[in-house]
Amino acid sequence: MKPRHDYHIIPGFKNYYAAGDGRIYSFSTGRYRQLTEFRYPYARYLIVYIRKNKIRIGAHCHKLVASAFFGINPDLYDIKHINKDRCNNKPSNLQLIPLNDIQRSELENFYRVQIREYEIMLLYHINFNYDHPDYLKLCELKKKNNLKLLYNYLNLLINSIYKL
């Protein structure tokens, strides 16, 4: 079943298309991918599980749609939903706000400071047990070199521990 709407191939994912209705279509299976509101560690946005080099990853649907329809690198833009509905990922509902170098630098510095503070809080909570599952997950996420992912994971973890 091909998508009925206008669709564009997603850069970096040759077997997937973003449809004009904001959904992700798999060319290899011939079906739309299931959208998931996955709260941990991503929170807030719909994601879709897709494969890249035979590895299953979760990606924000609105970023894939923006990448396909506008030909952008989503990491260089703040992508807003115009009608504030995070479930509406149609290209017409996405507003792209370019991040300048200073904003990206400030954001990275913010993430680094917060990550360090959260990491210290976590270590105190687990009594410096480096075999604790939460610490092992932290180490695994650090290897990915994705500050935003690491920050989101620690933020949700610390908030759930201390009920902030």
Count every beta strand, where a strand is a DSSP E run of 2 or more residues: 9
- Topology-level CATH name of the largest domain: Homing Intron 3 (I-Ppo) Encoded Endonuclease, Chain A
| Global structural class | alpha+beta
CATH class of the largest domain: Alpha Beta
Radius of gyration: 18 Å
Mean pLDDT, as a whole number? 85
- What share of residues is helical? 25-40%
Task: Tell me the series of helices and strands, N- to C-terminal.
Answer: EEEEEEEHEEHHH
Give the second-level CATH assignment, the architecture of the largest domain. Alpha-Beta Complex
Terminal Cα separation, in Å? 46 Å
Unreliable runs? none
- Total domains, how many? 2
Count of discrete alpha- or pi-helical segments spanning 4 or more residues: 4
Task: Give an overview in words.
The protein is an alpha+beta fold and 164 residues long. It contains 4 helices and 9 strands; from the N terminus they run βββββββαββααα. The chain has helices spanning 61-70, 101-125, 133-142, 147-162, and strands at residues 7-10, 13-19, 24-26, 31-32, 35-37, 46-52, 55-60, 77-81, 94-98. Helix 2 (101-125) packs parallel to helix 4 (147-162). It is globular. 19% of the residues are buried.
